[in-house]
Write a structure and sequence with these properties.
It contains 25 helices and 8 strands. The chain is an alpha/beta fold and 527 residues long. The protein is globular, with a radius of gyration of 25 Å.
C-alpha cells in the first residue's frame, strides 16, 4: 500500500490564492489540513469545499505555533508543508510520490523557485517533508524549522533525506505582493519581539540580518549587525557550536561592520571559524577578505574550501557558483584570462541562470574571442534556456563594457521585459540617457524607484538637468548611492549635450553635502 501524505498549511485571507493552489496541489495529498489564523474572506469555505480539514487557530504572532497546530492533527504516514502562495509542478508531485514510497527515505527537501519582478529567479532547497512523528515539531516564531527535532529521529531510524529536483514556484516574495502584504513590517515585528524576550536568540538575529539584506535596508542591516555582535561578544565560546547557520550569522555581521580589506574583520571571521560548524558562508566571506587585501593564495585556498562544503550544505550558489567566480577573478588578477573563462563557464554549467556567472562569461568571451565567440555562446545558451532575461542582461553589460551602447540597449530592453523593470531597466535607462532621451529616462526611472532605489539617482539627475527640486527618500547605503550616481553621470557625459552639462554644474551645488566628491568630479569631467 502506498504511503499517505498529509499536506499542511497555515492561511489567512488567501481566497485569491486558494483556487490556483488547490489546482496545482491536486495529487500531492491524501489529507489536507488547513490552519486558519483569522480569515475574513472566503478562504475557509474554499478549502473546506476542496475536502480540507479547516482548523481555527487565532494568530499569536508565532509561525511555529500555528504550524504545530496542523501537525497535531496529522493522521497520514507523511507530512508535506506548503503555503498558499506556492505552486507545485506536476513533476514535483510525481517525484514526491516516488520519494515517500522509497525504502530508507525519511525526509525530503524541495526546490523553491522564487520569480523576481524582472524575470530572474532565485532558488533554494528547503526541508518540507518527513515521515509523521509526534517528536518532530517546529521551532522559531518566524522562518520556522523542524531540522533540530528531525535529525535525531532520522538517525535513530537510519533513514536519509532526499532532494526533489522538480520546482515549487513561490509567489509570495515577488516584491509587489510582498509589499502589499507588508511582510517586511510583519516579519520585523515578530523578530523584534523574539529578541526583546531573548537577546541571545541568535537565530532571530540571523533572520533580522537576512531581512535587512533582502529589503536592502542598510540602516537596519548595520543596527542588526551591531546588536548581534554585542550579544556574540558576551556569549559562551560554544554558543554557535551546534548551529548549522552559525557561520551565516557571523558572515553577515562581518559584512555589515567591517570593510572587506579590514584586518580586524578577517580576525573576527578567523576567530569564529573554529567555533561554528563548517560554513560555506563564512569561508566565502573570508575568501573575499583575502581577495580584497590582495592575498591571492589565501583567497584561492578559502574559495576551494568553500567549494568543498557542497556535500554538507547542498547550496549550489554559495558552495559552487560563488567560489568558482571568485577563483575566476583571482585568475584574472594573475593574468590568466583563459583560466578565468573556464571557471566562469563552469559556474554557468552549475547555474545557467546566474546573473554574475553569465556576466563574467559574456565579458570574458567578448574580450578573448570577440563578437563572433559571444554570438556562438549566446546561440548555444539560447538553445538550452529561452527566454532568459539574465543572459540578455549579461550580453548588455558585455556590449556596454566595450562602448557599444546601441547593442547594449537592445539587450537590456529584452532583459527588462514589458513594461521595463528591475536592474536591467536601470541599465536601459542609462543607455537611453547617453542617447539623449531625457524625458523617456525620467518617466522610466520614476516607474522603477519603488522597487529599485538606484532609479532615484536617475530621477535626481533628470531633476538637476531640468532645474527641479527632488523629494525622494531612498534606502541606499552611501557607497551604493555613490556608485549609482557616477553611473548616471557617466551616461550624461556620454550624451555630450552642453546644455545638460551646464545645468548639472549650476544645480548640483544643492547636493554637494551629500556627495562631497561631486564638485571635483564635475569639474574634471567638464574640463
Amino acid at each position: 500500500m502506498n504511503p499517505t501524505i498529509a499536506l499542511t498549511l497555515i492561511v489567512r485571507d488567501e481566497a485569491a490564492m486558494a483556487p490556483d493552489f488547490l489546482r496545482a496541489a491536486a495529487g500531492a495529498w491524501d489529507e489536507l489540513i488547513v490552519v486558519d489564523t483569522g480569515s475574513t474572506d472566503d478562504t475557509k469555505a474554499l478549502f473546506a469545499a476542496a475536502g480540507a480539514r479547516v482548523i481555527d487557530s487565532p494568530w499569536q504572532g508565532d509561525f511555529a505555533q500555528a504550524r504545530n497546530v496542523a501537525l497535531a492533527h496529522v493522521t497520514s504516514d507523511w507530512v508535506l508543508v506548503l503555503d498558499a502562495d506556492e505552486r507545485p509542478s506536476a513533476d514535483f508531485i510525481t517525484q514526491l510520490r516516488q520519494a515517500v514510497a522509497t525504502p530508507g527515505v525519511g525526509a525530503l527537501t524541495i526546490r523553491i523557485s522564487n520569480p523576481l519582478p524582472y524575470g530572474h529567479r532565485r532558488e533554494s532547497s528547503v526541508l518540507r517533508g518527513w515521515k509523521a512523528d509526534a517528536r518532530v515539531r517546529f521551532e522559531h516564531a518566524i522562518h520556522e524549522d523542524v531540522s533540530a527535532h528531525l535529525a535525531p529521529v532520522l538517525a535513530e531510524r537510519g533513514e536519509r533525506v532526499v532532494d526533489l529536483s522538480a520546482a515549487v514556484e513561490h509567489l509570495g516574495y515577488v516584491r509587489e505582493r510582498a509589499a502589499a502584504k507588508d511582510k517586511k513590517a510583519r516579519d520585523l515585528t515578530i523578530l523584534e519581539r523574539c529578541l526583546a524576550a531573548d537577546p541571545a536568540d541568535f537565530y532571530s538575529h540571523l533572520k533580522r540580518l537576512e531581512l535587512a539584506r533582502y529589503w536592502r535596508d542598510g540602516a537596519l542591516w548595520t543596527a542588526s549587525a551591531r546588536a548581534a555582535a554585542d550579544e556574540l561578544g558576551v556569549a559562551p565560546a560554544d554558543a554557535l557550536a551546534h548551529a548549522p547557520w552559525g557561520g551565516e550569522l557571523v558572515a553577515l555581521v562581518a559584512e555589515a561592520l567591517f570593510r572587506p580589506d579590514s584586518a580586524v574583520g578577517l580576525l573576527y571571521l578567523s576567530d569564529w571559524e573554529a567555533r561554528v560548524p563548517q560554513s560555506a558562508a563564512l569561508l566565502h566571506r573570508r575568501a573575499l577578505c583575502h581577495e580584497a587585501r590582495g592575498e591571492l593564495d589565501k583567497a584561492g585556498a578559502a574559495f576551494e574550501a568553500c567549494q568543498a562544503t557542497r556535500s554538507l550544505t547542498g547550496d549550489v550558489q554559495l558552495s559552487t557558483v560563488r567560489p568558482l567566480l571568485g577563483r575566476a577573478r583571482l585568475a584574472l588578477m594573475r593574468g590568466d584570462a583563459a583560466q578565468a573563462l573556464r571557471l566562469s563557464m563552469d559556474a554557468v554549467e552549475h547555474a545557467p541562470r546566474d546573473p554574475e556567472a553569465l556576466m563574467a562569461t559574456a565579458a570574458l568571451l567578448r574580450q578573448q574571442g570577440g563578437p563572433k565567440a559571444l554570438d556562438t555562446w549566446e546561440a548555444q545558451h539560447r538553445a538550452q534556456i529561452d527566454p532568459c532575461p539574465e543572459r540578455d542582461w549579461a550580453l548588455g553589460e558585455a556590449a556596454l563594457a566595450l562602448g557599444d551602447r546601441a547593442q547594449a540597449a537592445q539587450a537590456f530592453r529584452r532583459a527588462a521585459g514589458v513594461p521595463p523593470a528591475g536592474p536591467a531597466a536601470l541599465r536601459l535607462a542609462q543607455c537611453w540617457l547617453a542617447e539623449g532621451r531625457l524625458e523617456d529616462v525620467d518617466r522610466l526611472c520614476r516607474s522603477l524607484v519603488a522597487d529599485e532605489p538606484e532609479a532615484g539617482l536617475g530621477v535626481l539627475v533628470c531633476d538637476l538637468i531640468h532645474g527641479k527640486d527632488t523629494a525622494l527618500e531612498l534606502e541606499l547605503t552611501a557607497d551604493a548611492a555613490n556608485v549609482a550616481l557616477k553611473q548616471w553621470l557617466d551616461a550624461v557625459f556620454a550624451a555630450g549635450n552642453p546644455r545638460w552639462i551646464q545645468a548639472l554644474a549650476a544645480n548640483a551645488i544643492a547636493i554637494y553635502a551629500l556627495f562631497p566628491w561631486l564638485e571635483a568630479y564635475l569639474r574634471r569631467r567638464a574640463s
